């Protein structure tokens, strides 16, 4: 099982980034997918989640209206479009897959929002 995040980097406040998480080794279309983040000295928190078919999404209040989660089951990939980024969005972003078959985490990608 592998979850590989990409797309992180350094961006100025107000900028945008698109994170991707490529999955392999399990039946991606059966799994609820989510993005989480962890800032230095803070606990890991849920950012956004999407159901297996992509029909329902949920977001942390802090990112509603700015971030969009989506998935492409044919490509075994989940995305996080992040717009209007703020310095407080700086964190390591992790991809998570969850279902009765188990829970899997990626290694994370760093997002830094700074001028």
Polypeptide structure, described:
The chain has 115 residues and is mostly beta strands. Helices cover 0% and strands 54% of the residues. The strands form two sheets. Strands 2, 4, 5, 6, 9, 10 and 11 form a seven-stranded mixed sheet that branches. The protein has a four-stranded antiparallel sheet with strand order 1-3-8-7, with no helix packed on it. The termini are far apart.
Write out key terms for the chains shown:
globular; 54% strand; 115 residues
Q: Care to give the gist of this entry?
A:
By secondary structure, the protein is mainly β. It has strands spanning 2-6, 9-11, 17-24, 32-38, 45-50, 57-59, 67-72, 77-82, 91-99, 102-105, 109-113. The protein is built from no helices and eleven strands.
User: Helical amount among residues, as a percent range?
Assistant: under 10%
Strand content: over 45%
Category by helix and strand content: mainly beta
Radius of gyration, in Å, reads: 13 Å
**Major sheet description:** 7 strands, mixed
Total number of helices: 0
How many strand segments? 11
- The shape is globular
H-E string: EEEEEEEEEEE
Terminal residue distance? 37 Å
Average residue-wise pLDDT:
97
């Amino acid at each position: 099982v592998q979850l590989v995040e990409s797309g992180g980097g350094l961006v100025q406040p107000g900028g945008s980034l698109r994170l991707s998480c490529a999955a392999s080794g399990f039946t991606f279309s059966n799994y609820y997918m989510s993005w989480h983040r962890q800032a230095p000295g803070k606990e890991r928190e849920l950012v956004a989640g999407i159901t297996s078919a992509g029909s329902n999404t949920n977001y942390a209040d802090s990112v509603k209206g700015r971030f969009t989660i989506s998935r492409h089951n044919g490509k075994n990939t989940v995305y996080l479009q992040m717009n209007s980024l703020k310095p407080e969005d700086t964190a390591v972003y992790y991809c998570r897959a969850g279902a009765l078959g188990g829970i899997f985490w990626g290694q994370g990608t760093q997002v830094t929002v700074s001028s």
